[in-house]
C-alpha cells in the first residue's frame, strides 16, 4: 500500500537508538573563576559536541519524530493542522525579539501588533476585550477562573465557590478550577452526548461561579441547547466559560460571545495553526464580555486618541498570569495566519475541517455511535482495545487518533483530520482504520512493528523512574 | 483575493464527491447550529497572499525603534548559535504534538530527557521536569508544591524585596487559590538580609525564595544561611537562577535548595518580548508532587527483532523513552492533578538543550565568567563619570548592576533612548544596566552616551 512509504519515521536506521549526548562526551571541567571559591561550584560535567556531530545528533533525533509534515495527524481535540512556514519567518524578525521591559513608545510596532491581534480575536470570538498574556490554553482557563472570581467579588458574591463542568470536558478544566481554589461539580452527559439539562439544573445554585463548556464538545457535537444553558447559568448568577479547543469547527458560523459566553480562551496552536512544538509553546488568549474587561491581566494594550498604542493597567486587574507578555512569538505567528486567511480563509478552514471529519466518519468501519459531527468524531473500537488500535495504526504510516477518551464512548477513537487533508489522504487514513479493524488481538497487542521503537514498557517506566542520564545504570 | 483557506487542498470535484458521500448538497448543512445563534456577519478581515501577509506583519513590527538593549531584570539575551534555529526548526520537531505515542516520537523524547539531565547536573537536584511556562509560573508552582508536601499546615511564602512586581503578582494569583499569602522580606545591598529573613520566619512559612544572581544582578552570598533558616522552620528553600549562572555559581543542592526555578531561555532564545522557559527542578522525594511533564527512560516491552539485532548501535538496543508518572497530570487526575499545565515550552527546551550542548561545560563556564567580568568593567567605566556611581551594591555581579545617578534616572533613560540605547530606570535615581555577549559590542558607545546625557 502506497501509504506505507509515507512513514517518515521508518528511516533506514529504525530500531537503532541514538546514543545520549552524555554517552558521546562525559568530560568534567574544574571551575576556575575570578570569584571567591565559596561563591562558585567545584566542577561541571555537561557534554559538548563539535558542531558537525551536534548537527547529526539532532538530525538523527528529528528523523525519529513524527510531525505534521510527516503525514496525517488526526488527534481528536488537538487540531493538528499544517503550520504555514511563512509564519516562522515573521516570528524570526529582529523586531519581534525586543525585550519586554522596553518603553511603550519605543515598541509601537509590537504594541500595534498586540492591539490588532486583540481586535482580530475579539471579532472572531464575539468578545469585547481580549488579553494575550496566558501562555497556553490551560493558563487561559486559569485566567478565566481568576476573572470570574474577581467579577463575583466585585459584586459582593465572593461566596460562590463552585465551578460546574461536564464529565466529557478536557482534564485541564477540572484542574484549572481547582487551582483557582474552586470546588468542581461534575455533571454527567446525556445519552445523546450533550449537556444533560436536568443534571445541569440540579448542579446550579447560589454557589455557582461558572459553567465551563466546550462547544462543539469533545464528541464533536454542537450543544444545541446553548441558549437555554446560558440562560440557566446566568439566572443562577454564574458566568459561562468557553473552552476554545474546538473553535476550528465554528469559524464564521457561530461565535461564543453570541451564544452567551462571558469568558473564553483561544488555543492559537490549534485554531490558528501555530506549531505545537512537541508539547509547547502554545498561547491561550482570553476574551471577555464588556462587564469583565476591567479585570483583565496587567498590562493591556489600547489605542490613544492620537493614534498611538500604550500599555495600561485595567481598573480592577487581576494582576499578571505570566511574568512578562506570554508566548509572544507564538502570537506573532497566529496574527500572520489570521491576517493571511481573512474571513474567506477562516470560514473555509472550518467548512473543510467539518467536511473532512464527516467524510472520514463515513469511510471507517468502526461504529460511530453519535452525531452529527462538526470537526471531529468519536468512533468506538468495540471489542478491540483502542490503545492497541492506535499502536497498530502506527504500522500503517499514519498517526493514530486520541484514544480511550471521552469515556462516554467505549474504547473511543477520537478523530480530527482537520481541513488540510486531501480526499486521498482521508481514504488512506480510512484504509488504515479499516485494516486494523479486521485484525486479531494478537496482531494488535504486538504492534507496532515498523516504528523506531516497539511498544514501550510504561509500567516499569513509572515504577522505576529514570528521569535523567544520571539515573541510568 | 483568496476564495478559501490556502491550506485546505480540496478541488471542487473532490469537495463535490465528498459531499455526495456524506449525503448533503452543501457543506453548510453539516453545521448543526441553531439559527438563533448563527453568525451571519463577517469579521472584516481581508484575505491576503502570503507576500502581502508577510509585508503586513513586518510593516507593523518595523514601527519599533531600533535600540541596543541593556535590559535584563530577570530576562536575558545571549548570542544564540545559528545551529539552534536550523535544528530546532526541523519540521519533525516543531510541528509535532506532545509525545503521547512514544513509538514515533523517540527523537523529541530523547532531546527532552537530555534537557532534564542537563538541569539535574546544573542544580544537583534529583529531578527536573521538561518545562514550565516561565520563571514566575514555576515559582508559583513551587509554592503550591511546598504547601502540598509539608507535614504540618502553613500559609505563608516569603520572597525577597528585589523580586519583580510582576513575578509576585503571578505568584499571588496562583497562591490565592490555595489560601497562601505572599510576603516580602528585607534585602541588603542586593542580597538577602539574613536578620530580616530570620525575623520574618515562623512555623507558618511553607517556602522561602531567594535568587542567585538576584534580580538586581548581585551574586548572593548568604545562600547557606537561607537554607538553614528554611530548614529550621520546616519550610522549603526555593532558589531562582538560570543555566548560565548555575554553571558557575554555587550548586543549589550544596546550599540546601529543595526546589530550583528560573528562566532557561537565556539559552537558545533572543529576548522575544518575554517568551521564556520555566525551569523546575526539585529533590527526588517530591517526585510524585512535581507539576508538568516528565520524560523517563524505559525499555521496549517486546524484544528487538530482525534487522534491529544487526544495528551497530544496538548493544543495549531496547532502551526507549516515554512520558511517565502521568497519573500526576490533569488529563488523568483532573481536579486532583498536581497542576493544570498541559501545553508547556517543550520546543524552547529543545533549543536551550542544543545551545547548551554546543557550549558544553567549558563554553558555558567561559560565558558565565564573562558575565562576571563584563558588568565589573562597564560599572568601573560608568563610575568615572561625574554624577554617576556604579555599581550601587558592593557585591560581585552577574550580567547586570545598579548605577546611581545624581540626575533623575527616568530622564536619563529617556535621553539614552534618543541616543539609541534602552536601559531600566528602576527608581528616581537608579538605572539598571545589563551587559552580555549580545550587546557588549556597543558597551563603549553606551558609556559614551551616558557621559553625554549626564553632562
Structure description:
The complex is a heterodimer of chains A (473) and B (455). Chain A is an alpha/beta fold. Chain A is 35% helix and 12% strand. Chain A has a single domain (1-18, 64-473), classed as Type I PLP-dependent aspartate aminotransferase-like (Major domain) (Aspartate Aminotransferase, domain 2, 3-Layer(aba) Sandwich). Chain A has a 7-stranded mixed β-sheet, sandwiched between helices. In chain A, β4, α6 (171-179) and β5 form a beta-alpha-beta unit. The model of chain A is unreliable at 1-14 (pLDDT under 50). Chain B folds into 3 domains: 12-54, no CATH class; 68-79 and 361-453, Aspartate Aminotransferase, domain 1 (Alpha-Beta Complex); 82-353, Type I PLP-dependent aspartate aminotransferase-like (Major domain) (Aspartate Aminotransferase, domain 2), CATH 3.40.640. Helix content of chain B is 37%, strand content 16%. Chain B has a 7-stranded mixed β-sheet with strand order 2-10-9-8-7-3-4, sandwiched between helices. A 4-stranded antiparallel β-sheet of chain B has the order 13-14-17-16, with helices on one face. In chain B, strands 1-15 form a two-stranded parallel ribbon. In chain B, α3 (82-88) runs antiparallel to α13 (346-383) and α6 (135-149) runs parallel beside α7. Chain B starts with 11 loop residues before the first helix and ends with a helix. Chains A and B meet through α2, α3, α4, α5 and α6 of A and α1, α2, α3, α4 and α5 of B.
The overall strand count of chain B is 17
Q: Rough shape of chain B? A: globular
- Count of spatially separate domains of chain B: 3
**The CATH topology of the largest domain in chain B:** Aspartate Aminotransferase, domain 2
Tally of individual helices of chain B: 15
Uncertain stretches of 5 or more adjacent residues of chain A: 1-14
Q: SS-based structural class of chain B?
A: alpha/beta
Oligomer: heterodimer
Strand arrangement in the largest pleated sheet of chain A: 3-9-8-7-6-4-5
State the strand order across the main sheet of chain B. 2-10-9-8-7-3-4
Q: What is the terminal separation of chain B in angstroms?
A: 57 Å
Low-confidence stretches of chain B: 304-316
Overall number of domains of chain A: 1
Structural class of chain A: alpha/beta
Amino acid at each position: 500500500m502506497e501509504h506505507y512509504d509515507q512513514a517518515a519515521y521508518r528511516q533506514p536506521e529504525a530500531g537503532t537508538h541514538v546514543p545520549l549526548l552524555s554517552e558521546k562526551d562525559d568530560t568534567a571541567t574544574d571551575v576556575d573563576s575570578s570569584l571567591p571559591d565559596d561563591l562558585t561550584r567545584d566542577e561541571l560535567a555537561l557534554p559538548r559536541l563539535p558542531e558537525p556531530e551536534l548537527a547529526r545528533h539532532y538530525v538523527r533525533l528529528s528523523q525519529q519524530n513524527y510531525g505534521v509534515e510527516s503525514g496525517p495527524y488526526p488527534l481528536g481535540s488537538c487540531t493538528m493542522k499544517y503550520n504555514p512556514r511563512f509564519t516562522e519567518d515573521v516570528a524570526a524578525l529582529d523586531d519581534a525579539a525586543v525585550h519586554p521591559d522596553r518603553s511603550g513608545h519605543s515598541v509601537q510596532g509590537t504594541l500595534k501588533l498586540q492591539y490588532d491581534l486583540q481586535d482580530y480575536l475579539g471579532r472572531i470570538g464575539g468578545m469585547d476585550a481580549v488579553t494575550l498574556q496566558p501562555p497556553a490554553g490551560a493558563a487561559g482557563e486559569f485566567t478565566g477562573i481568576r476573572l470570574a472570581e474577581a467579577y463575583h467579588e466585585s459584586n459582593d458574591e465572593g461566596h460562590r465557590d463552585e465551578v460546574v463542568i461536564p464529565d466529557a470536558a478536557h482534564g485541564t478544566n477540572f484542574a484549572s478550577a481547582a487551582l483557582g481554589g474552586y470546588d468542581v461539580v461534575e455533571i454527567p452527559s446525556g445519552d445523546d452526548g450533550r449537556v444533560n439539562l436536568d443534571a445541569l439544573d440540579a448542579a446550579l445554585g447560589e454557589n455557582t461561579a461558572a459553567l465551563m463548556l466546550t462547544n462543539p464538545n469533545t464528541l464533536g457535537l454542537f450543544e444545541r441547547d446553548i441558549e437555554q444553558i446560558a440562560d440557566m447559568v446566568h439566572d443562577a448568577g454564574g458566568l459561562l466559560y468557553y473552552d476554545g479547543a474546538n473553535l476550528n469547527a465554528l469559524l464564521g458560523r457561530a461565535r461564543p460571545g453570541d451564544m452567551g459566553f462571558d469568558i473564553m480562551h483561544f488555543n492559537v496552536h490549534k485554531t490558528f495553526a501555530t506549531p505545537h512544538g512537541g508539547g509547547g509553546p502554545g498561547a491561550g488568549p482570553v476574551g471577555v464580555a464588556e462587564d469583565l474587561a476591567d479585570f483583565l491581566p496587567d498590562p493591556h494594550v489600547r489605542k490613544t486618541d492620537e493614534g498611538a498604542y500604550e500599555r495600561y493597567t485595567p481598573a480592577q486587574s487581576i494582576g499578571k498570569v505570566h511574568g512578562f507578555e506570554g508566548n509572544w512569538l507564538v502570537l506573532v505567528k497566529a496574527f500572520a495566519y489570521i491576517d493571511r486567511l481573512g474571513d474567506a480563509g477562516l470560514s473555509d478552514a472550518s467548512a473543510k475541517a467539518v467536511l473532512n471529519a464527516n467524510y472520514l466518519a463515513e469511510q471507517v468501519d468502526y461504529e460511530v455511535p453519535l452525531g452529527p459531527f462538526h470537526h471531529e468524531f468519536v468512533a468506538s473500537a468495540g471489542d478491540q482495545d483502542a490503545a492497541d488500535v492506535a499502536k497498530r495504526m502506527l504500522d500503517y504510516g499514519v498517526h493514530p487518533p486520541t484514544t480511550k477518551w471521552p469515556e462516554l464512548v467505549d474504547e473511543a477513537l477520537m478523530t480530527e483530520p482537520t481541513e488540510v487533508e486531501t480526499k486521498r489522504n482521508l481514504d488512506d487514513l480510512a484504509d488504515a482504520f479499516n485494516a486494523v479493524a479486521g485484525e486479531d488481538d494478537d496482531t494488535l497487542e504486538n504492534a507496532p512493528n515498523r516504528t523506531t521503537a516497539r511498544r514501550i514498557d510504561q509500567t516499569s517506566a513509572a515504577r522505576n523512574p529514570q528521569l535523567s542520564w544520571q539515573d541510568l545504570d | 483575493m483568496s476564495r478559501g483557506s490556502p491550506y485546505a487542498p480540496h478541488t471542487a470535484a473532490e469537495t463535490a464527491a465528498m459531499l455526495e458521500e456524506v449525503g448533503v448538497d452543501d457543506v453548510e448543512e453539516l453545521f448543526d447550529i441553531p439559527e438563533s445563534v448563527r453568525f451571519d456577519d463577517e469579521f472584516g478581515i481581508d484575505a491576503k497572499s502570503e507576500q502581502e501577509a508577510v509585508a503586513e506583519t513586518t510593516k507593523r513590527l518595523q514601527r519599533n525603534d531600533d535600540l541596543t538593549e541593556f535590559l535584563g531584570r530577570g530576562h536575558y539575551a545571549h548570542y544564540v548559535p545559528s545551529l539552534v534555529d536550523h535544528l530546532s526548526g526541523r519540521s519533525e520537531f516543531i510541528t509535532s504534538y506532545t509525545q503521547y505515542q512514544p513509538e514515533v516520537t523517540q527523537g523529541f523524547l530523547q532531546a527532552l530527557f537530555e534537557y532534564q539531565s542537563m538541569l539535574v547536573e546544573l542544580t544537583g537536584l534529583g529531578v527536573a521536569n521538561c518545562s514550565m511556562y516561565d520563571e514566575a509560573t514555576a515559582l508559583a508552582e513551587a509554592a503550591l508544591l511546598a504547601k502540598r508536601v509539608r507535614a504540618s499546615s502553613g500559609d505563608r511564602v516569603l520572597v525577597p524585596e528585589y523580586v519583580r512586581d510582576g513575578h509576585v503578582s503571578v505568584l499571588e494569583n496562583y497562591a490565592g487559590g490555595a489560601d497562601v499569602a505572599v510576603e516580602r522580606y528585607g534585602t541588603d545591598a542586593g542580597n538577602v538580609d539574613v536578620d530580616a529573613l530570620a525575623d520574618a520566619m515562623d512555623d507558618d512559612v511553607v517556602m522561602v525564595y531567594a535568587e542567585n544572581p538576584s534580580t538586581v544582578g548581585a551574586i548572593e552570598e548568604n545562600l547557606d544561611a537561607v537554607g538553614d533558616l528554611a530548614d529550621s522552620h520546616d519550610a522549603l528553600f526555593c532558589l531562582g537562577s538560570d543555566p548560565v549562572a548555575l554553571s558557575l555559581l554555587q550548586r543549589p543542592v550544596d546550599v540546601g535548595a529543595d526546589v530550583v526555578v528560573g528562566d532557561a531561555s537565556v539559552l537558545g532564545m533572543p529576548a522575544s518580548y518575554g517568551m521564556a522557559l520555566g525551569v523546575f527542578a526539585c529533590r527526588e522525594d517530591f517526585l510524585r508532587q512535581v507539576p508538568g511533564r516528565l520524560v523517563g527512560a524505559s525499555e521496549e516491552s517486546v524484544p528487538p527483532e530482525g534487522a534491529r539485532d544487526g544495528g551497530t548501535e544496538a548493544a543495549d538496543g531496547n532502551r526507549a523513552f516515554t512520558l511517565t508518572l502521568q497519573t500526576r497530570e490533569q488529563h488523568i487526575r483532573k481536579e486532583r492533578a498536581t497542576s493544570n499545565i498541559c501545553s508547556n515550552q517543550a520546543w524552547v527546551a529543545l533549543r536551550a538543550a542544543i545551545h547548551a550542548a554546543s557550549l558544553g561545560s567549558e563554553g558555558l563556564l567561559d560565558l558565565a565568567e564573562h558575565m562576571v567580568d563584563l558588568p565589573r568593567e562597564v560599572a568601573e567605566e560608568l563610575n568615572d563619570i561625574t554624577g554617576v556611581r556604579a555599581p550601587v551594591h558592593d557585591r560581585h555581579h552577574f550580567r547586570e548592576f545598579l548605577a546611581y545617578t545624581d540626575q533623575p534616572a527616568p530622564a536619563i533613560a529617556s535621553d539614552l533612548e534618543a541616543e539609541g540605547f534602552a536601559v531600566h530606570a528602576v527608581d528616581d535615581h537608579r538605572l539598571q544596566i545589563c551587559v552580555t555577549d549580545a550587546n557588549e559590542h556597543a558597551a563603549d558607545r553606551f558609556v559614551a552616551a551616558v557621559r553625554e546625557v549626564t553632562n
